Amino acid sequence: MHSLIIFASGTGSNAKKIIEYFEDNDQVEIVGVFSNNNQAPVLKMAENKDIKTFSFDRNSFYKSDDVLHILKEINPDLIILAGFMWIVPERMIDSFPNKIINIHPSLLPKYGGKGMYGNRVHKAVLANRESETGISIHYVNKYYDEGKLIAQFKINLSPDDDLEKVVEKIHKLEHANYAKVIEQLLLSK
Ligand code: GRF
């Protein structure tokens, strides 16, 4: 049995897709959804699916070892960041080497780094009149969006794609691929 933990800060559409993808898989269990925002819709969604949820504040994430302690007790095979907005502390990364992964809505190393998240990424892509964009799934290290790449998926942009269209295309690409990449990683472990 493989166990997964998901970290998310907001809506959690990727978290939802991952949960649904593994719902009928008796080899993979989502053992918890963690959020830095106790009002995050992702927590309600997980509770409705009978998945344990944990919310935490800055102090228990960065200053104390409260969250790290829970993670160590669960000892998941992978920790999945899906729209999680905080940088992961180094001691957490060191405790789970090659086990924390993230999804970023651009073709890294382009449009990554501090301050590059959500619509800011897509606005920059459109401003530069890129002909393609995509998503990157990567291991997490102590720098924003700089960990080793696991997989990338591309889409073409047409000149009349606006922000709304790019957001829609990227989400579609994420939803179609994140859970599959997670499954492949688990199989290779
Ligand atoms: C996704 O676009 C992901 O690439 C980024 O945050 C967004 C989360 O969206 N890291 P959602 O909450 O899963 O809808």
Point out poorly predicted stretches.
none
- Count of DSSP H/I helices: 7
Helix content: 25-40%
Strand order of the largest sheet: 3-2-1-4-5-6-7
Account of the 3D structure:
The chain is α/β, with parallel strands linked by helices and 189 residues long. It is 39% helix and 22% strand. It has helices at 13-22, 41-48, 58-63, 66-74, 90-95, 118-127, 163-187, and strands at residues 2-7, 28-35, 53-55, 78-81, 100-104, 132-139, 149-156. A seven-stranded mixed β-sheet has the order 3-2-1-4-5-6-7, with helices on one face. α2 (41-48) links the parallel β2 (28-35) and β3 (53-55). The longest helix is centred in the C-terminal third of the chain and has 25 residues, at 163-187. 5-O-phosphono-beta-D-ribofuranosylamine binds at residues 8, 10-15, 82-83, 103-105, 174.
